[in-house]
Write a structure and sequence with these properties.
Blueprint: E1 4-8, H1 21-31, E2 35-39, E3 44-47, E4 50-60, E5 68-70, E6 74-77, E7 83-86, H2 94-104, E8 111-113, H3 116-120, H4 124-127, E9 138-141, H5 144-154, E10 157-161, E11 171-173, H6 180-190, E12 195-199, E13 208-214, E14 217-225, E15 240-243, H7 248-263, E16 268-274, E17 277-282, H8 289-294, H9 300-311
Parallel strand pairs: 1-2, 1-7, 7-8
Antiparallel strand pairs: 2-4, 3-4, 4-5, 4-6, 9-12, 10-11, 10-12, 13-14, 13-16, 14-15, 16-17
Helix pairs in contact: 1-9
Length: 312
C-alpha cells in the first residue's frame, strides 16, 4: 500500500533528528514506500471551499546535518492526500485551533492524525479532567481566593499555564513559599486563561513517566527524572530519560482512558503519569518515540503506521 502523506510540522531544518518523533514517523513512512510532502502551518490556506497548502516533496535520512531533501514547491488541494500528519508543536493558541478547523474539512476522506476536531476538543490539561478518578487533586481557576483556598488545603502545589508545553511556566509553591501572590500577578499579566493548580506529587522525584498509546493501546513507556533542584521532569528542561517497565497501575490507567482515546480518533497520544496519577494527556504533538525505542521498548513509529494503514 502506497500512501501520499503530507506532514504539517515546524521547520524541519531545526529538528533534533535523534529525538524528534515526527522525524521517526517520516523515516518509517518512507521505509514503507509512502510518498511524503512537507509544509508548515503558515502554508495552510482555505480558498473558495478548498483547503490548500503549498507543499514540497520530502525525502528523509538519519544523517545529522543532512537529514532531508525538499523538492519544488507546489500548491495542492490537501483533500487529494491520503494522510495528513498534524505535527506542529503547541502553544495551543488560536492559530493552532484555526488549523484544526481547516483540516477538519478534509477529514476523514483524508485521514488527519490526530482527528483535528478531537484535538481541538481535548486540550492536554483540560482533557485529563475527563478521568477524575485517576488524576491528582486539581483546580482550574483565575480566582485568587479559590487558588489560595486550594493551597491552604494541599499546602505543596504546582502552578501551570493551562495551554503551555515543555514545562515552560511551571512553578512549585511550597508551604513556606511567600511568592504565591506575585506568581498569580505574573500569570494574570502573561496569560488570559485560567491557571491549572495541582497538589504536588512527591513521587515525581522518582520520575514522571511518558506513556505512549496507539489507537488507545499501551505502546511503550519512558521515565523522565527531574534534575537536582528542579521540580519539572520535561526533557526540554533537563529531565533525564531512562528505561522503565509499566506498573500495574500504569496499565490500569491505559485501560481506563484507552477506549475514549480510540473512540475520538486519537491514534497517537502520550500521557504523563506520576506515581499513581495521570497528570496530562498529550494529543497535539506527542513525543517520546525515539527514546522509548532506544531503551529497548516498542517501535512506536511502526505501530502508528500499522494503525494508520489499517484505517486506510
Amino acid at each position: 500500500m502506497k500512501l501520499t502523506v503530507a506532514i504539517q510540522m515546524d521547520p524541519i531544518e531545526a529538528i533534533n533528528i535523534s529525538a524528534d518523533s515526527t522525524f521517526a514517523l517520516a523515516l518509517e513512512a518512507e521505509a514503507r514506500g509512502h510518498e511524503l510532502f512537507y509544509y508548515g502551518p503558515k502554508q495552510l490556506s482555505f480558498r473558495d471551499g478548498v483547503v490548500v497548502a503549498t507543499v514540497r516533496p520530502l525525502k528523509v535520512r538519519p544523517t545529522k546535518g543532512d537529514h532531508f531533501t525538499l523538492g519544488d514547491a507546489a500548491r495542492i488541494d490537501l483533500s487529494t492526500m491520503d494522510v495528513v500528519l498534524m505535527r506542529q508543536d503547541p502553544p495551543f493558541d488560536m492559530g493552532y485551533i484555526t488549523a484544526t478547523h481547516l483540516l477538519e474539512r478534509i477529514h476523514p476522506k483524508t485521514l488527519v492524525v490526530n482527528d483535528p476536531k478531537e484535538v481541538r476538543n481535548a486540550p492536554e490539561k483540560l482533557f485529563v479532567t475527563t478521568f477524575k478518578d485517576v488524576m491528582p487533586p486539581t483546580l482550574i481557576s483565575s480566582d485568587p481566593s479559590e487558588i489560595k483556598a486550594f493551597r491552604a488545603e494541599h499546602q505543596d502545589i504546582i502552578l501551570k499555564p493551562l495551554f503551555g508545553n515543555g514545562g515552560a511556566g511551571v512553578f512549585r509553591v511550597k508551604p513556606d513559599d511567600e511568592n504565591l501572590a506575585s506568581l498569580l500577578e505574573m500569570f494574570t499579566t502573561f496569560y488570559r486563561e485560567p491557571i491549572m493548580v495541582q497538589r504536588y506529587l512527591p513521587a515525581v522525584r522518582q520520575g514522571d513517566k511518558r506513556i505512549i498509546l496507539v489507537d488507545g493501546k499501551f505502546a511503550g513507556a519512558l521515565n523522565r527524572v527531574p534534575a537536582q533542584g528542579e521540580a519539572r521532569s520535561n526533557m526540554h528542561v533537563g529531565g533525564r530519560p531512562e528505561a522503565v517497565e509499566p506498573t500495574k497501575r500504569d496499565l490500569e490507567i491505559c485501560e481506563i482512558i484507552g477506549p475514549e482515546l480510540k473512540a475520538r480518533g486519537l491514534i497517537f497520544t502520550g500521557i504523563d503519569v506520576i506515581g499513581d496519577y495521570l497528570t496530562e494527556i498529550n494529543v497535539t504533538s506527542p513525543t517520546g518515540l525515539q527514546e522509548i525505542k532506544r531503551f529497548g521498548g516498542p517501535d512506536g513509529a511502526k505501530l502508528i503506521w500499522d494503525a494508520i494503514e489499517a484505517k486506510k
